[in-house]
Amino acid sequence: MNRSSLRRELVIPITALVIGVSVAIGWVSMKAGTDAVYSLTKRILVDMVNRINTATEKHLDGALTALESIAPSANQLPKEYEFSPNLLTLEEKFWAASGLFMDVNNYVYFGGKDGRFIGVYRISPSDVQLFWREPTDQIRYVYKVGGVGDRSQLIRTDAFDPRKRPWYQIAMHSETPVWSSIYNNFSFHYPTITLAKAVFERNHTFAGVVATDVTLKELSSFLRKLEISKNSVAYIVDEEGYIVATSGNEIPERIVNGMPERMRAVDMKTTLISSTFSRLRKLNIKAAETRAFELPIGTVDLAISPLGNKQGLHWQTIVAVPRADFMSSINQGFLQSVVIAVACIIFALTIGLTIVERVIRDIRKLTAAAKKFGNGEPMPKLEIRRSDEIGILAQTLNEMENKLRFDKLTQVANRESLFVQINYLQKTAKEQPESNLGFTLLFVDLDRFKNVNDNYGHDAGDKVLVITAARLRSAIRDTDEVARYGGDEFVLLLKDTKNSIDIHNMVEKISTLVEEPIALEHAVVTIGASIGWASFPEDGDDYVRLIKIADSRMYNRKRDRKTVSLFHAG
Q1: 553 inside domain
Q2: pTM score
Q3: What is the pLDDT of residues 329-367, one digit of tens each?
Q4: pLDDT at residue 466, as a whole number
Q5: Of 188, 215, 242, which closes a domain?
Q6: Which helix (H) or strand (E) holds 358?
Q7: In sequence order, what are the residues at sequence separation of 6 or more whose Cβ sits closer than 8 angstroms to the Cβ of residue 119?
Q8: How far apart are CA 238 and CA 252, in angstroms?
Q9: Which of 215, 235, 269 corresponds to the end of one domain?
């Protein structure tokens, strides 16, 4: 091969490699930036729904506070509270209660069981309306008033009976405050929800219902003031899927037969509302969480959180943001990275060969080791001395092999590792029948081991097991394997065994080694070894059967040894 062809052989692959690495680095950078943006987006979205929930629950708590100021719950007072339905007395209380949170629940009212009604509606600090109906009246009077007791300016009258209103009907049968469904207030013409509470006179006699309205237009105004991203949307839905409030410009109501009707989220024309909620409504959301959906407009990130559970409502807050809103700066940075990468390719070519070759060499070692590990073969020693991720991976692989394949006490193979190696040898033998591959299992059971445990303790027994395992390891070839099968039992896997003579010689060799004295801290002990064997494929082609045969021969040998011992003793 001439010089020019050699140059081509080197430069072309290396150039392609460097370009590929540059592209890979660019892709990784893009992905890292994307992941960072996504992580930040999730954090922002969760923070946003929490802000919305805090503000909304503050409004809802304001309604509870307003009612408590008029008719305190029994657990808030040292004795049971007796409600007075006197309209003049209530007028003064309602003036104070309606001014507590004028931005959302500025209308407080009471309907009595006899049809009486009083309500104070604070439109503004200077514009207050009083709603009044005596028990004997057939109509309700609406006054524009400047203070308690003012009746100077009658605005209108209407045929209004509080006992027929939905808020009255649901509250009169409940011992606790209850919320109505969201409706369009017929007097003020914007979405409203009512909190109503039954009140009682002496001896727990039902007196009527006090209530306050929470206007939802302020929630939408609050949502519109949030700064999330250019195309994002935040919205709140009730448990029936109707829009409570939204940051979008689309009005969540439509006119049906001349009457305003609230809209469900799935019927909204705003894609980020209708499409996202149609995916979410089948989910059971119990805590704030984030989701990502693929929509025709692209990937959309969402945060969803339950809202109002402690106030007795079951709403959901949802913030949806097109991922493209946050990705524009990342895309620009990616283009800059491409330009820089192209400029660096020439420099990278001069040093890339050495680095790449070293990395590939170590990766090949790891791959070969992992393949052997997966096949049940002993892993070669990994001579990889690096402090980077590859070095850590090599160290981890060695540690993993040690933990998964070796017995913690004796540091020989464990039972699971033995079975993997046997399966591998059987599979290889079936795939290569012409090679006549075979192996033998020696089942070793230690005699008199229980006496060591009983007389000298388990620490001594552990030492005997460690020493015995080392002796067994020294008795076999490097290609063979010793495994601790359990307790004081070991199994030796002998590969490429030739004949029964070799097996019997190995059995005698092992018996001699195992029976050598073992020095403990305060004593010298001897143990014996009963050994059975089974060969593949002569005794079977299934490792379970081979183990049983070897185990059976081991017990026969143990029995024969005991018989001989008894005979000599006699």
Answers
A1: yes
A2: 0.52
A3: 666 666 666 666 666 666 656 665 566 566 666 677 777
A4: 94
A5: 215
A6: helix 324-375
A7: 94, 107, 108, 109, 110, 130, 131
A8: 13
A9: 215
